[in-house]
């Protein structure tokens, strides 16, 4: 019994409008992605598995959020400032600020990464 090789062909989309062209359009320079490590890929695999329990899903998705927050903090502009305390002691602080569109989703992760961080919220309302 001889086996004939199966020709290798690229899978075609069911409909041309379903074609994902993301690989043809590179991301803008202002967009950063997490480095794709074996750990991150394992975390993605766990949270995408339909057999993953709710507790495991929450634990591993929180881990991904912490990794994302840590990477995001690396991209914040930081300025050195000298402040004087009420007792005339001078301290050098590194101050950073950033804006999030929906900060509530990552606030717990930010608090876990930066224990004593102060978070301020401002509601910006646009008139349309």
UniProtKB/TrEMBL annotation:
Start and end residues of each Phosphoribosyltransferase domain: 35-126
Keywords linked to the UniProt accession: Glycosyltransferase, Transferase
Residue intervals passing through the bilayer: none
Keyword Ribonucleoprotein assigned: no
Region (Disordered): 1-22
A Pfam family the protein falls into: UPRTase
Superkingdom: Eukaryota
InterPro entries from the UniProt entry: PRTase-like, PRTase_dom
Keyword S-adenosyl-L-methionine: no
GO molecular function ontology, one term from the record: glycosyltransferase activity
Protein name: Uracil phosphoribosyltransferase, synthesizes UMP from uracil
Source organism (scientific name): Sphagnurus paluster
């Amino acid at each position: 019994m001889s086996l004939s090789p199966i020709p290798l062909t690229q899978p075609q989309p069911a409909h041309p409008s379903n074609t994902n062209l993301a690989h043809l359009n590179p991301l803008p320079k202002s967009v950063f992605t997490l480095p794709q490590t074996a750990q991150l890929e394992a975390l993605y695999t766990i949270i995408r598995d339909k057999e993953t329990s709710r507790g495991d899903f929450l634990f591993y998705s929180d881990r991904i959020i912490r990794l994302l927050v840590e990477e995001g903090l690396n991209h914040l502009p930081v300025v050195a400032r000298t402040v004087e305390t009420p007792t005339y002691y001078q301290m050098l602080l590194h101050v950073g600020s950033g804006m999030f569109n929906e900060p509530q989703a990552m606030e717990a992760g930010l608090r876990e990464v930066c224990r004593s961080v102060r978070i301020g919220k401002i509601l910006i309302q646009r008139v349309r």
